[in-house]
Fold this protein.
Amino acid sequence: MLLLLQILLGTFVLLANSVSETAAQARFSYSGEYGSAVGTSFSYSGDHIWGPITAFRVWEHPGSFIKALQFQFAGTWSKTYGYEEGKHDEVTLFPGEEITQISGKHSTYVFQLIFSTNHGRTFFFGQPAGESFNAVPLEQGNVLAFVTGHHNGVGITGIGMHWDHSSSPALKAYAQVPEAGNPSG
């Protein structure tokens, strides 16, 4: 009897872990890496635990590619990756505003980045040269959590986007609304 109870308990634990792992896997998605991905790798994955992206900075080589990137998570600026010399553009997101799509152009470098938000704002950086990409989360209601990629002594050579559940109550509610004609959501 004790052995049967142990087997049942062990089966329950394994089943519970399997269900929670499946739910966790469905939560995250990845888009990329776009560009040549040569040089030194970088990641903002440790910084995203501070909270959602609240601002970002982009350095671009005049008339050419993206030189450097920096993100602010919950009001704290992260490290800059790339070549941060010269003027940069800075975007501060509104409260509850989150990045829902990143498009652009790439080749040897990332030549253009286009950030779109849940507030309908779009921000363009760089030049439209190279092959197009369009990065969006796999799950409705997910938003940009952080980026990874590569850089060298001149600029950003690759970029990948990591998506996660929104921290915004409005987007969380949106993610739970079933699509029209699809009662399962």
Summary: The chain has two helices and 13 strands. Helices lie at 2-27, 169-176.
